[in-house]
Amino acid sequence: MTDHWQTLGEEGIQFMGKMSASISHELKNVLAIINENAGLLNDFCLMAERGMEIDPERLARISGNIAKQVKRGDQILKNMNRFAHSTDHPLSTVDLHATLAMVVKLATRFAANRVVTLTTTPTNKPLLITSRPFLLANLLWRCLDRSMNFVGTEKKITLSAVTKGEQTLIIFNGLSDQPIEEPAIFPSQQDSDLLTILQCTLTTASAVGELTLTLPQTTGN
User: Record keywords: Transferase included (predicted)?
Assistant: First the structure.
């Protein structure tokens, strides 16, 4: 087990860095749009000082754009905060639905660059398991990242989580119906180590375009 932890140390840092860089890029876009609209408001102020008539609808539209970006920035920061807190406790109770939603939000920019849409199956009830939050988020990201390499013609991947006996299944639906060998999904030592530490198994069902990650209800120490 020690060897597994050693190989995952660098991987964990890279995962945190990759997600942090993506989040900062999104926040810079938010600030750029706010700054652009603030510039327009300044132009209107100058026009008003010169006695020019200002269209109230245009002002309202600019104000609405700024409010929209503030809300977007707030959502980005909330997700970043949740992600950062995934490192608080090595082993704890996790709401799997909330974790899936967090990872999908983290991955949305990467998916957009690959022209792939990500969704989760709506649910109002938490699905609680005992696991390692940060490593679980890392594993889900790696599954999602690899799934996008094999996405089907609709270019859409839907994630869902269900309980089956003593196990929990996370299903990535929307993959190609062409045969996919599991080593092609998870080829690296880090991938294998994540599966081992989290006591997970990975299976593919090409006929229905699915990848399934099976987790225990409780991950051992």
Answer: yes
Task: Determine contact, residues 140/101, Cβ cutoff 8 Å.
Answer: no
Evaluate whether 1 touches 187 at the Cβ level (below 8 Å). no
Q: What is the pTM of this model?
A: 0.87
Strands 167-173 and 201-205: unpaired
Q: Are strands 128-131 and 167-173 parallel, antiparallel or unpaired?
A: unpaired
CATH of region 92-216: 3.30.565.10
Domain 2-85 has CATH 1.10.287: yes
Residues of the chain with CATH 1.10.287: 2-85
pLDDT at position 15 is: 92
* Per-residue pLDDT tens digits for 162-210: 998 888 999 999 998 777 666 667 767 788 888 889 999 988 887 788 8
Residue where the block lists tokens 């102020």: 45
Please, are residues 120 and 97 in contact by the beta-carbon 8 Å criterion?
yes
